[in-house]
Amino acid sequence: MTVTPLGIPRRLLEFTIDGEEARVPEGSTILDACRAAGKDIPTLCQGDTLTPKNACRVCVVEVEGSRTLVPACSRTAEPGMEVRTDTERARHSRKIVLELLASSVDLSTTPRVAEWIKEYEAEPDRFGPDAARLNEEPKIDNDLYVRDYDKCILCYKCVDACGDQWQNTFAISVTGRGFDARIAVEHDAPLTDSACVYCGNCIEVCPTGALSFKSEFDMRAAGTWDESAQTETTTVCAYCGVGCNLTLHVQDNEIVKVTSPHDNPVTHGNLCIKGRFGYQHVQNRG
Amino acid sequence: MDLHFGDSKPTDEERAAVDALLGPPDSSWEGADRDEMRAADLRWARGGRAARDRRDQLLPGLHAINDRIGWISEGALDYLCRRLTVPPAQAYGVATFYAMFSVKPRPATVLHVCTDLACAAAGASELCAGIESRLGLGSGVSVERGPCLGLCERAPAALAIRAGDPVRTAVSAPATVEQAVLAASAPDSAPEEPAAAMAVPQAGDPALTLLRRVGVVDPSSLDDYRAHGGYTALRRAFELGPAGVIREVTDSGLVGRGGAAFPTGRKWQATASQPDHPHYLVCNADESEPGTFKDRVLMEGDPYALVEAMTIAGYATGAHQGYLYLRGEYPRAIRRMRHALDQARARGLLGDDVLGQGYAFDIEIRRGAGAYICGEETALFNSIEGHRGEPRSKPPFPVEKGLFGKPTVENNVETLVNVLPVLMMGAPAYAAIGTERSTGPKLFCVSGTVERPGIYELPFGATLGELLELAGVRAGLRAVLLGGAAGGFVRPDELDIPLTFEGTREAGTTLGSGVVMAFDDTVPLPRLLLRIAEFFRDESCGQCVPCRVGTVRQEEALHRIADRAGAAAADDIALLREVGRAMRDASICGLGQTAWNAVESAIDRLGAYE
Ligand SMILES: Cc1cc2nc3c(=O)[nH]c(=O)nc-3n(C[C@H](O)[C@H](O)[C@H](O)COP(=O)(O)O)c2cc1C
Ligand code: SF4
Ligand code: SF4
Ligand code: SF4
Ligand code: FES
Ligand code: FES
After folding, report:
1. What is the phi/psi pair of residue B393, to 5°?
2. Quick one: pLDDT at residue B35?
3. Is the ipTM of this complex over 0.90?
4. Mind giving me the DSSP string for B248-273?
5. Which one of B378, B540, B583, B584 would you pick to mutate in the ligand 4 pocket, going by the greatest count of ligand atoms within 8 A of its CB?
6. Residues B283-291: what's their mean pLDDT?
7. In angstroms, rounded to a whole number, what is the distance separating the alpha carbons of residues B116 and B119?
8. CA B38, B44, B45, B49: dihedral to nearest 10 degrees?
9. How does strand A70-71 pair with strand A82-84?
10. pLDDT interval class at A10 (50, 70, 90)
11. SS3 string of chain A?
12. How far does residue A196's CA lie from ligand 2's centre (Å)?
């Protein structure tokens, strides 16, 4: 969350990042501190509106005295800690994690990952042509959103957003285990038979595009999706009196998807089905 | 939370299985028949928070259905969810996590056949092939090849489970095709398992400490336990008071026997001093490390010792509730422990006023359902709480936030049983056993190609060679796996390694939980390594990328080099090393961090692919 709750000012604590002194408010994560110090640490499962599951392990750093590497996104900074973000050891793990992910799922719609793959010199192809992949067909079972788990990195964000961190609907969960673990609704049923209320909050947090608006999915399939041609306009939802902020993504004068600003203190990026998907009437020129 | 349930209804049998555990539903909101809707139902809904607080009944509930029916249908799962106010998607995520459950229809009888290391060395693949050809489709038995059943001293092993009321089980070990088929087709008439003492070649030796009573005492008799010195340690604990007990345990130098070798006294002290209450005690009896069976033998052979030890641990750390998380594949240990708890409760040794000392303590058994990862301490908490058995990230540590978010001390069975001699002989005498840094007696699970496999008790410091001599090592020894699948291989010319934590560490290997598996040169090493890789791939919880995908990539690489060596394998060995390093460094828990140890040691110490 980028909104800092008002309250008594937090004590600053001191530690070092890559040998340089850093001072951050108590309770900050190593990642917060690194970002404040201008370090670019890759992250995938961390999200600004959620407590990270620290499952992807792409943000690992070295902490003096720790046997293993430490996920920067979740470990809180402690006074006197000596953190090193760019050691050979940390870079090696990040590189392998990127290779493992890219060899098993489709990262083509994951922002920034191509850049990191280059930076860390990851070679996802070196596991050979027979390396197991997810290879799943997209699940298209409703008109609002598509679940393309071939792109899913199991970051748990959607589960947390649908569950006790925001929506409290608990429509989806991780099922199975190990490499066979998947996000699914109960009994692996279609979404339409589940508890889903189509708030789309899971789409909002998904870092890979595994969850997407049907509109975006269809346009990508047709080759007409063009983010550079889109404008974003933030406005207030007209449906009820709560006053949620909507960001309308418009391409060729058509709303192609709706998001919500994460730093909005009312919604934190969350919406309901109407705000998220109920925009057809706006452009019904019939 | 607005729960959504589908249209599927439980059968009468499924409903009965759940109701036998939870009692009949109070209202139609909880799934009672709508025709009998009581007037009150029309006005308010019960369930909700009160039921949600029983979330920890989810795993027992899944067991109840699976035990009765053999698998878990949509209707049964939905009914259980209604009763506990658990979202069905979450319950489905839990049910599909465990190997012993099925959410697809299957025959009422499942025959689990072990294909793990000791059994593989004893001919498990021929056994499986034989069983599968005898019990083909339509036999009413589902044959499932799986990981170690903790019966390695009697390898090869098979376990039959027949659903029904009550559920029936039969063990066949050492198994032949005929006996395994008999166990599956007529579990009631399968021959009784040999006594626990048969797993203890030294049984009856008066010099034993931990195994002193195994084979000597009647495991079903509390009186016999007392006649053999039982419950004197608890009396001593009441004399010393909680702080005094912790002092003794600390001074004894006792460290955990579950694999991580953490000082027990320090863990107890840290829990006892937490201001947050209640405190919990958890005994980790999950024992799913391939090659480990000591905790089973202790529970089967001397169950009251564990009850007494848990009571002492609870008393010292300020807990009033203990949980015994017991591996689901141990039917006899579960029966014996259940009986022991009932007897202890009936005699005032558990309950509101233990031994009339004003201390309240009770123990609940929780059955695992086939997941090695649930032995990891925080995964175990999640499992008890009715969540997927995925490890939590640490910190916070269990002593601060453990089971149900409360301060929790978790110990291995063998660790706890050691507390009895600590109190009986006093810390200095106990600390005098073994070496300076590894004190006390230690149990070793010896299996594989030896004459007398079983549990051996030796003071810390004996060498590997001495232990193998006791067990009757056979000619042509090729390799010894120390510490189980998460441990490491050593060579036959390294038998002078002292069996202590520091000695094995110095030798660049590990003692782990005390597994010693010997393999002679008839056992094909690459096949063994493949099995280890397959085990970790199968048992990874799937939460973090290095382990979830890394274990798959490692297994693939081992398949590629299974029949290769030298330069032809070099590429893939380099790949294994790179992936292994990241797994060790970046995985969330010990499973991923150690998954590559054994294979790495086989390459480096045994020259497996040279
Ligand atoms: C993957 C994994 C599996 C484990 N399995 C067991 C087990 O079956 N039994 C056990 O006592 N400890 C097991 N442990 C170790 C426990 O996490 C924990 O360290 C131990 O129960 C603490 O008890 P102790 O201090 O008495 O050894 C396992 C650890 C990991 C990482
Ligand atoms: S749309 Fe909303 S309710 Fe449906 S799965 Fe996503 S977060 Fe859950
Ligand atoms: S669907 Fe998206 S948000 Fe959900 S686990 Fe997969 S990648 Fe993460
Ligand atoms: S290391 Fe493996 S078992 Fe442990 S949390 Fe990660 S995926 Fe799960
Ligand atoms: S971003 Fe930190 S572990 Fe995923
Ligand atoms: S029972 Fe088969 S290896 Fe342990």
Report:
1. -85, 145
2. 60
3. yes
4. HHHHHT-B-SSSS--BHHHHHHHHHT
5. B540
6. 96
7. 5
8. -140
9. unpaired
10. confident
11. CCCCCCCCCCCEEEEEECCEEEEEECCCEHHHHHHHCCCCCCCCCCCCCCCCCCCCCCCEEEECCCCCCEECCCCECCCCCEEECCCHHHHHHHHHHHHHHHHHCCCCCCCCHHHHHHHCCCCHHHHCCCCCCCCCCCECCCCCEEECHHHCCCCCHHHHHHCCCCCCCCCCEEECCHHHCEEECHHHCCHHHCCCCCCCHHHHHCCCCCEEEHHHHHHHHHCCCCHHHEEEEEEECCCCCCCCEEEEEEECCEEEEEECCCCCCCCCCCCCHHHHHCCHHHHCCC
12. 5
Q: Are B446 and B454 in contact (CB under 8 A)?
A: yes
Two structure tokens written together for B489: 């291989």
Which residues have a Cβ under 8 Å from the Cβ of A257 and sit 6 or more positions away?
A213, A215, A216, A249
With 0-12 / 13-18 / 19 or more C-beta atoms within 10 angstroms meaning exposed / middle / buried, residue A32 is middle
Buried b (16+ CB within 10 A) or exposed e, A41-73: bbbbbbbebbebbbbbbbbbbbbeeeebbbbbb
How do residues B467-476 score in pLDDT, each as one tens digit? 999 999 999 9
Q: Which amino acid is at B491?
A: R
Nearest to B105 by CA among B71, B79, B74, B77: B71
d(CA B108, ligand 2 centre) in Å:
36
Q: Taking Cα atoms as reference points, which of B119, B14, B29, B114 lies closest to residue B61?
A: B14
- Report the C-alpha gap between B580 and B573 in whole angstroms: 10
What's the mean pLDDT in B248-274? 97
B573 CA distance to ligand 4 middle (Å): 23
- Select from A74, A168, A186 the Cβ nearest to the Cβ of B1: A168
Assess whether the previous peptide bond of A5 is cis (omega < 30° from 0): no
Question: Confidence band (pLDDT; 50, 70, 90) for A1?
Answer: very low
**Two tokens at B330?**
């141990």
| Span A98-113, pLDDT tens digits | 999 999 999 999 999 9
Please tell me the distance from the alpha carbon of residue B313 to that of residue B410, in angstroms, as a whole number: 10
Residue B322 zone, left/alpha/beta (φ > 0; ψ -120 to 50; rest):
beta
| Residue B175 or residue B5, greater confidence | B175
Cross-chain Cβ contact A96/B556 below 8 Å: no
Whole-number Å distance between alpha carbons of B602 and B489: 6
What is the amino acid identity at position B7? Answer: D
Cis peptide before A190 (omega within 30 of 0): no
Q: What is the dihedral of CA B338, B339, B341, B347, to 10 degrees?
A: 160
What the block records as the tokens of B278 is: 């209640």
Q: CA-to-CA distance for B205 and B456, rounded, in angstroms?
A: 11
| Residue B298: DSSP 8-state | H
pLDDT at B137: 78
Pairwise CA distance, residues A54 & A46, whole Å: 7
Q: Which residues contact B349 (CB under 8 A, 6 or more apart)?
A: B222, B231, B234, B307, B308, B311, B355
Interface contact flag, A54 B588, Cβ < 8 Å = yes
pTM of the model: 0.96
Determine the Cα–Cα distance for residues B493 and B40; give it in Å rounded to an integer. 77
- Quote the tokens at residue B462: 């004996």
Q: According to the model, what pLDDT value does residue B32 have? A: 72
Q: H/E element holding B108?
A: none
For tokens 């919406």, the residue is A271
Length of chain A, please?
286
> Please, what is the Cα angle at A178 between A172 and A182, to 5 degrees?
25
User: What residues does ligand 3 touch, defined as CB less than 6 Å away?
Assistant: A 152-158, 183, 205-208, 210-211
Please state, rounded to an integer, the average pLDDT across all residues of chain A.
94
How many angstroms separate the CA atoms of B57 and B70, rounded? 19
Peptide bond into B187 cis (omega under 30): no
